[in-house]
Amino acid sequence: MSEHNPSPLPPAGFWQGAKDSQAIIFTYLPVSFAFGVSATQFGFTPWEALFLSCSMYAGASQFLVVALLGSGTSIWLTALTVIALDIRHVLYGPALYHQIQDRLNLKKTAIWAWGLTDEVFASGMIQLSQRRQQWSESWMLGLSLFSWMSWALGSLLGGLFADQVSQLPQFLQAAMDFLLPALFLSFLLAAFEKKHTLIVSVALIVSGLACYWINLSAAIFIGILAGIAAGLCKHYLFHAADEDHAG
After folding, report:
1. Per-residue pLDDT tens for 119-138?
2. Considering the entire predicted model, what is its pTM?
3. Cα–Cα distance, 53 to 50 (Å, whole number)
4. How many CB atoms lie within 10 A of CB 115?
5. Residue 28 and residue 164: Cα distance in Å, rounded?
6. Contact by Cβ (8 Å): 210, 223
7. How far apart are CA 225 and CA 245, in angstroms?
């Protein structure tokens, strides 16, 4: 009796990416809503909050931007601070490119790469590591586009209804602020593999120490550098040792 191998699943399309963005959308909406509220509290209009979400799309860093600009900090210092906090995004493209086997379309890549937030990146990495044959640029377009639209919409609504939100209990406002890191943590755990234990441990320990001794902003940047250094050491030192042992 001949055995039939199951046919490979076709690549996921644009609307499948939009469907898979639901988990991100349901988290982005309340967090971006909170950003819109925060922006109006620092003197920005709802439309200015929407403009920031459309032009910057920096996620949680937008809270820092409106706080710095609202307190009178120069736009140059604000820009440098945000760049330092979000420099990790420079690594997202190469990390994905290393996993992608298909030839990329420059126009499509430019669009979905612009929307490569922490959560979109994590979703893409999970798709490439667990369902590689279903990954496609159309899927990434749907995922990133609908995620961005939800963030922009939430920012506008938060600015428009800021007065009503200020009357909510404090614990509800705090819960909205926690949704974004909680979502990214869930993606991190879903993509976590045992071989990454050393890198993640080093990054967490160094970040915790830096947060205690310096501040949170520095801890994020230093933790990223520590994770990169740990990854490079693991790759070159242990890989070289394995080759010597095999030889």
Report:
1. 888 888 888 878 777 788 88
2. 0.67
3. 5
4. 19
5. 20
6. yes
7. 29
What percent of the residues of the chain are helix, what percent strand, and what percent coil, each to the nearest 5? 80, 0, 20
Sign of the CA dihedral with 86 first, then 98, 203, and 175 last:
positive
For 163-205, what is each residue's pLDDT tens digit? 776 676 776 666 665 655 665 566 566 556 677 777 778 888 8
Could you tell me the two tokens for 60?
């949680």
Which residues are CB-contacts of 138 (< 8 A; sequence separation ≥ 6)? 11, 12, 13, 14, 17, 108
Q: Cα angle at 68 between 41 and 159, to 5 degrees?
A: 30
Q: Hey, what amino acid is at 102?
A: D
145-167 core/surface letters (b: 16 or more CB in 10 A; e: else): bbbbbbbbbbbbbbbbebeebee
State how far the Cα of 39 lies from the Cα of 32, in Å rounded to an integer: 10
Sign of the C-alpha dihedral computed for residues 114, 179, 98 and 208 taken in this order: positive
